[in-house]
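Summary of Year 1 activities. Much of the first year was spent building the evaluation harness for sequence design. The harness presents a backbone, in tokenized form, and records the residue chosen at every position. We chose the following record to illustrate the format because it has been used consistently in internal testing since the harness was completed.
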């Protein structure tokens, strides 16, 4: 007796198998790209980071203006300048955030990249003495400065955000967003230091394949969320360590800096710090904290681990432990920190006071969005800063 196979069953089986293959390829696509090339893997990683950070920071914002203000404050808080024994490195916005280092160029660049992920048009404006960002709000390019966490409004019209040309030519009528006059603006030399030029890094200027990869990672994040970030990073670090030498330079590609710092980035220990910072930026505090604890025994990167661990204590609202932690650091290194001595071994410890000072100077509403803190929690942290850092050490 012949067995007759139902044609509908054969078709259904073919459809199911095809769907399984397509789904498998879809899920595995970003991971296959990681295997393909180190620089490409880093590009996917940083695009995912920009999407994650910009989305998390702005999730409670009601309009584009609120998004710009919050991201401006985020860059202000998370990139430090004037750092003894630490130079600026030109590689990517993501590496600036990993290192917590950036001057005006890097900060303006960082703001533009994060705004791009929120579909807000922006570009860098570079003067001989300073760099800021122009951000399109209501189809008009407005002036924002992440280095000083400010923008300008007209004194007689607080709703009118100034443009670059108005800041340059009409500044006697303007006040900063915090209420200070233009004369108190840290970047006021832009009015006298020479002509500026625009450096556009909008997504429209990217090569087509990078546009596509950027949109693909946005889509994957939309589908997979935080789980995708976690799995992707674990896989990326595994591939880098097992098949690409386990060095930051194997992931990032060319890094322009001095020989001393480049030697650091070529060490396996620094790759551990890089992993911790990546987990930290993606909000995976337990993984990051565990690596920081291990790095406290490292001669080369103990100061980095001390500072970033203090940041985790702040972000996880362990305020009592944070205060005790700061006291221990200043008991051991206080004199060197205060006198800006101590060499390369304590370079990141200079940031502890400055980070809390920036926190203290940032408006509460912005801090609520960036850290998901309540008003009482913000006031408690500001009280710690006032009580501890305003007294002789």
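For this record, the design step produced the sequence shown next.
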């Amino acid at each position: 007796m012949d067995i007759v196979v139902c044609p509908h069953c054969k078709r259904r089986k073919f459809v199911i198998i095809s769907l399984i293959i397509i789904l498998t390829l879809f899920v595995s696509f970003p991971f296959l790209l990681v295997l393909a090339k180190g620089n490409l893997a880093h590009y996917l990683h940083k695009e995912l980071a920009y999407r994650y950070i910009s989305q998390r920071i702005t999730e409670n914002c009601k309009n584009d203006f609120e998004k710009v203000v919050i991201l401006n404050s985020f860059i202000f808080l998370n990139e430090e300048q004037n750092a003894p024994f630490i130079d600026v490195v030109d590689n990517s916005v993501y590496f600036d955030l990993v290192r917590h280092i950036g001057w005006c160029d890097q900060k303006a660049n960082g703001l533009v990249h994060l705004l791009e992920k929120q579909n807000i048009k922006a570009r860098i404006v570079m003067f001989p003495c300073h760099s800021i960002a122009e951000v399109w709000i209501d189809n008009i390019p407005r002036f924002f400065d992440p280095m000083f966490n400010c923008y300008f409004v007209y004194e007689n019209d607080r709703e009118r955000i100034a443009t670059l040309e108005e800041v340059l030519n009409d500044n006697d009528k303007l006040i900063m967003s915090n209420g200070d006059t233009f004369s108190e603006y840290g970047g006021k030399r832009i009015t006298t230091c020479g002509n500026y030029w625009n450096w556009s890094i909008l997504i429209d200027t990217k090569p087509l394949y990078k546009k596509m990869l950027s949109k693909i990672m946005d889509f994957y994040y939309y589908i997979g969320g935080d789980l995708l970030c976690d799995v992707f990073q674990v896989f990326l670090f595994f591939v880098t360590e097992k098949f690409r030498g386990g060095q930051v330079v194997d992931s990032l590609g060319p890094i322009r800096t001095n020989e001393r710092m480049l030697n650091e980035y070529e060490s396996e220990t620094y790759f551990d710090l890089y992993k911790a910072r990546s987990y930290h930026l993606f909000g995976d505090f337990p993984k990051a904290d565990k690596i920081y604890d291990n790095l406290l025994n490292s001669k080369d990167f103990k100061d980095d681990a001390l500072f970033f661990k203090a940041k985790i204590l702040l972000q996880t609202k362990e305020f009592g432990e944070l205060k005790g932690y700061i006291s221990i650091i200043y008991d051991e290194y206080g004199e060197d920190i205060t006198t800006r001595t101590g060499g390369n071994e304590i370079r990141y410890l200079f940031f502890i006071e400055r980070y809390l000072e920036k926190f203290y100077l940032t408006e509460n509403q912005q801090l609520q969005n960036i850290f998901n803190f309540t008003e009482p929690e913000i006031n408690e942290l500001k009280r710690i800063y006032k009580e501890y850092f305003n007294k002789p050490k």
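Residues 296-393 form one domain. Quantitative recovery figures across the full test set are reported in Table 2.
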